[in-house]
Design goal:
Helices cover 16% and strands 31% of the residues. The protein is an alpha+beta fold. Strand 14 (259-261) and strand 15 form a beta hairpin.
């Protein structure tokens, strides 16, 4: 056997160890744990003697309450070598509000009584992003950390933001052994599946099955059978081919396309929650033949483990089992080759299923150590089940950055109002937003928007409060627009770019005061970038997310002004609805001086006269009811994302991920007007790159008219002869003209209006649709309707 000297890998020319960059959780020291306390929330974490605890104010300005509790539930700040300096009013208010039932359950499980509780109070409105306070645990028990918050005052901009706990254990956990998260409810089954094994278990109809990846990057194959069929000797397992065909998806996910079926098309389970978002329903569970064929005869495998676990249930053995392969990261490349790579799952990630009939289930902890399928380290899987009476919201995990803790898909404050009109919701950036309506299809909502008035939920837009002495300086540096020229009460649409000129986001900036701004965009990346630049430049400014404190309806269409003026009251020093100019806003109330407070802006994403109404979630029901009742005489209709797409494409309004990305600059995205290089003389991020890219452009954003009525889609190639000269960004058939139109990006040499091109379908060559370059937008190019 070849052996190497101990220092061989340190010598010049020696191979280097893998230096792949990963989220902190995978490279974290064995003694370090991290927890997030959401703004307006609280957590309970077990501590032991000598543990070091650091609490960070992530975005600044967020107050904090800290309590220590002994194992018997007795509260004692001395457990943290500190003294309580005030009542725990914020924490008690969180529990009393009833918005965090799991928090109440956590206190009950630990016999913690908050009556008369006092807290260690940390931070305040002046706290900076990154400020931290440390404690050392004096004994065994629990630490309770709350980020209390009252409903946000839109003018004061006192939003709720997260805190982070970094806990360094005095006695480190064993490497590869992560603590399981708390159960979602009282458990009926609590089953550990050891590495490289499988186990079978029964679940009754309506019960929930939670399958957890204990240490991250570990695959688990799941199979189940209708128990009543098994009793009759029929062993029809979950069938992934049937499932893919019925659901029209690569694999089910929370929402409308959530069910797994057997070969008889009997639904067996549905996916309720998923914190990973990457699974496989193509490959079989690993089998002995797989390992035999790659030179590992006799290797443990999931199929044989399934056979052993299912034998007691009368299920005939198979040489290889199809399965739902949770956390298995596979794909099919452009050459039709199926590949597998490391899982996306992290410690504690899970899939929550609901049994649709009585089931016999089997789960494995995959033993494949011959490929990246399990991250090159084999670990355990854990299974829990919960009673059918429990209620869990359908949700997927959303992480704004790779380092962030998962946020489950949430419902906006208007969700229940729209849910009375449709069941078709899609997960859009962590929110369930309406897509279509049974009584108002997308074309009907299009016409209602063009001729009357519609209402839609746009609460998923990301909002950030930017305040402090250097707020204007930061925004003028971050955005391409000249923020110094923006007056209080005005709004400006702008691009936000990286130094190379590629777009981070587009959005609108509200000026609330001399050094008070609100940025509303499409992504969390904008807020991350603003905070990073503020820290790098040493600016005295807070950038705090307010997305969950401000939900918004869009009221759009020619009659929207007449509707809005009936329901919005504004104080004498604020403009009335009739007085709000295009890209301006007012602060008002619903119905009168004591109504729900709102911010109303004359903005929209439809190309029509329209308004957006922002409110705190607690006032959502009142705001929706007022808008809806006032809209009935105007024939108001609901609009979902599908209808919105029709209006925004026709109006030439761009959408992230389709019309622009960090690989396109504002000129290539058709929003070059947001980059006033001549009038904005001060420097801003990307200025030099944008000057170069404007001077020597390679692509141009254009309109496209396609002959016929065959659909074209994002990513379809645009060709002249055999050469590809561009691609379709967004496309639709205009209900107004019947013309198939698109927004596209083409080579500058072929960007003149009237240029004849072809849109390639199928493989881009064997089917071509004739088309021609046109100006854009296709509708109201002078923006006379929203200005009206």
């Amino acid at each position: 056997m070849l052996s190497l000297p101990p220092d061989a890998l340190m010598r010049p020319g020696a191979p280097r160890a893998s230096r792949a960059r990963r989220p902190e959780i995978f490279g974290r020291a064995p003694d370090l744990e991290r927890y997030t306390v959401q703004g307006g929330g609280a957590i309970v974490v077990e501590i032991a003697p000598g543990d070091r605890l650091e609490i960070l104010n992530d975005e600044g300005g967020q107050p904090c309450e800290v309590l220590g509790a002994h194992p018997d539930g007795r509260l004692d700040a001395g457990l943290l070598a500190a003294r309580a300096d005030g009542p725990a009013d914020g924490l008690r208010a969180l529990v009393a509000a009833g918005t965090a039932p799991r928090l109440r359950q956590a206190f009950a499980m630990r016999n913690i009584d908050l009556a008369g509780a006092r807290a260690i109070r940390l931070f305040g409105p002046a706290a900076r992003a990154g400020d931290a306070v440390s404690f050392t645990s004096q004994g065994k028990g629990w630490i309770i950390i709350a980020a209390p918050a009252a409903p946000m005052d839109f003018e004061a901009q006192d939003t709720a933001t997260p805190l982070t706990l970094r806990l360094t254990r005095a006695k480190p956990r064993r490497v590869g052994q992560f603590a399981l998260p708390d159960p979602l409810a009282d458990m009926k089954l609590d089953l550990r599946i050891a590495s490289s094994t499988a186990a079978a278990y029964r679940v009754k109809a309506g019960e929930f099955i939670q399958i957890l990846d204990v240490d991250g990057r570990q695959c688990t194959d799941f199979q189940c059978f209708d128990a009543r069929k098994l009793d009759r000797g029929i062993a029809h397992p979950l069938d992934v081919t049937t499932t893919r065909t019925i659901q029209n998806h690569a694999y089910p996910m929370p929402g409308l396309h959530a069910k797994y079926f057997d070969q008889d098309m009997t639904p067996l389970v549905e996916v309720i929650q998923d914190t990973c978002g990457r699974h496989d329903a193509f490959a079989m569970a690993c089998a002995s033949k797989y390992y035999d064929d790659i030179g590992y005869p006799g290797h443990a495998n999931c199929s044989d483990n399934f056979n052993g676990a299912l034998a007691d249930y009368g299920v005939p053995a198979r040489p290889g089992w199809m399965a739902a392969n949770f956390f298995f990261n596979t794909g099919i490349d452009a050459h039709g080759v199926m590949y597998a790579d490391e899982p996306w799952s992290r410690p504690g990630d899970y899939v929550l299923l609901r049994a649709l009939t009585d089931l016999v289930c089997v789960s494995s902890a995959c033993p494949d150590d011959t490929s990246p399928a399990n991250g090159w380290t084999l670990t355990d899987i854990h299974v829990r089940s919960y009673a059918a009476e429990e209620r869990f919201q359908r949700a997927s995990a959303w992480r704004p950055t790779p380092e962030a803790e998962p946020v489950m898909t949430r419902e906006s404050t208007f969700h229940q109002n729209f849910a009375a009109l449709t069941r078709d919701f899609v997960d859009y950036r962590g929110f369930w937003l309406p897509n279509t309506f049974a009584t108002t299809d997308p074309v009907e909502s299009y016409w209602a928007c063009r001729e009357g008035v519609v209402v839609m939920d746009l609460s998923a837009l990301r909002k950030f409060e930017v305040t402090g002495p250097d707020a204007e300086r930061l925004m003028n540096w971050i955005l391409t627009r000249d923020v110094e020229k923006l007056g209080v009460g005005q709004i400006v649409y702008s691009s936000m770019c990286y130094p190379h000129g590629g777009m981070i986001d587009d959005g609108t900036l509200f000026r609330l005061g001399a050094q008070n701004f609100r940025w509303i965009g499409g992504s969390d990346e904008g807020g991350v970038w603003m905070r990073e630049e503020a820290e790098r430049l040493g600016l005295n400014v807070l950038v705090r997310a307010s997305t969950d404190q401000m939900h918004n309806l869009a009221v759009q269409g020619p009659t929207s002004r007449d509707l809005m003026k009936e329901i919005i009251w504004a104080a004498p020093h604020q403009p009335s609805v009739e007085e709000i100019g295009w890209f301006r806003f007012t602060v008002g109330r619903i119905g009168g001086p004591t109504g729900a407070p709102v911010v109303v802006s004359r903005t929209g994403y439809t190309g029509e006269l329209g308004y957006e109404v922002f409110c705190h979630p607690k006032d959502g029901a009142a705001v929706f009811e007022a808008v809806w009742q006032a809209g009935l005489p105007f024939g108001m209709r609901p609009m979902g994302l599908a209808g919105l797409d029709l209006t925004r494409i026709e109006s030439g309004l761009v959408f992230a991920g389709y019309d622009f990305s960090d690989q396109t600059d504002p000129f290539e995205a058709g929003v070059g007007f947001t980059v006033p290089l001549k009038s904005k003389t001060v420097d801003f991020v990307g200025r030099e790159a944008l000057i170069r890219r404007k001077t020597t452009p390679s692509r141009r954003f254009v309109g496209l008219e396609i002959d016929g009525h065959e659909e074209v889609a994002h990513g379809d190639c645009i060709r002249i002869g055999r050469a590809q000269v561009g691609e379709v960004c967004s496309a639709m058939r205009s209900p107004r003209t019947g013309q198939l139109i698109a927004l596209a990006r083409v080579d500058i040499a072929h960007a003149e209006a009237g240029t004849e091109v072809e849109v390639g379908r199928l493989d881009g060559h064997i089917k071509r649709l004739t088309a021609r370059i046109t100006p854009f937008p296709h509708y109201d190019p002078k923006k006379e309707r929203p200005r009206s």
